[in-house]
Amino acid sequence: VTNFSATAAISSGALFLSGGTFTLTGPLTTVGANAHLTVGGTLNLGSFTTTVGGNFATTGAGVFQSAIATTQLNVTGNVSIAGGASTATAGQLQVGRNFVQGGAANAFVASGTHRTLISGSAGVAQNITFANAPTSRFNRLDIVDITRNIVIQSNVFVADTLLMRGGSGASNLI
Asked: Quick one: CA dihedral 4, 74, 71, 40, positive or negative?
């Protein structure tokens, strides 16, 4: 087990967490559109906010764990969940671009009070794709500031609540 103590910040490049278990004991931030976080082991988000300026991905057997209400994983770029069985029972995942689930059939099984926010930029279409719905699924899906197209590329299952709100311009759920 590797613990990240205090605040860790990555200002450029990519952070790849391969094998083992990594537990956050403070906030983790990657700064910039090219600062990515890829998990090939287990990332326990603890009760902290993780901010990814680029893309976030799980790969191989990689998983993330979000089990505390105050947990936030805020991703400016794409989210690709293509690893093992991630546990998302509480907290929040915020997606700034596209969301793609692949890998294991149960790679993203959100439940409990977990919420996923789709919150991209005005005028920039966002895609949502699941390879394994309804096994992998959102629990609560909140699409905010709808001033763009949200393109559903596959079957998508929302176990609890779908909320679409905000925005003053044209938008479409396709």
From this structure: negative
The pTM of the full predicted model, rounded to 2 decimals, is: 0.88
Amino acid (one-letter) located at 101: Q
Residue at token pair 């901010």: 51
99, 121 Cβ separation under 8 angstroms: no
Q: What is the pLDDT along the chain (174 residues), one digit of tens a residue?
A: 455 544 455 555 567 666 667 777 676 777 667 778 888 888 888 888 888 888 999 988 889 999 999 999 999 999 999 999 998 999 999 999 999 999 999 999 999 999 999 987 777 889 999 999 999 999 999 988 766 788 899 999 999 999 887 665 555 666
User: Amino acid identity of 24?
Assistant: L
- CA distances 54 to 14, 57, 79, 160, 173, Å, are 9, 10, 9, 29, 25
What sign results for the dihedral spanned by CA atoms 94, 141, 60, 19?
Answer: positive
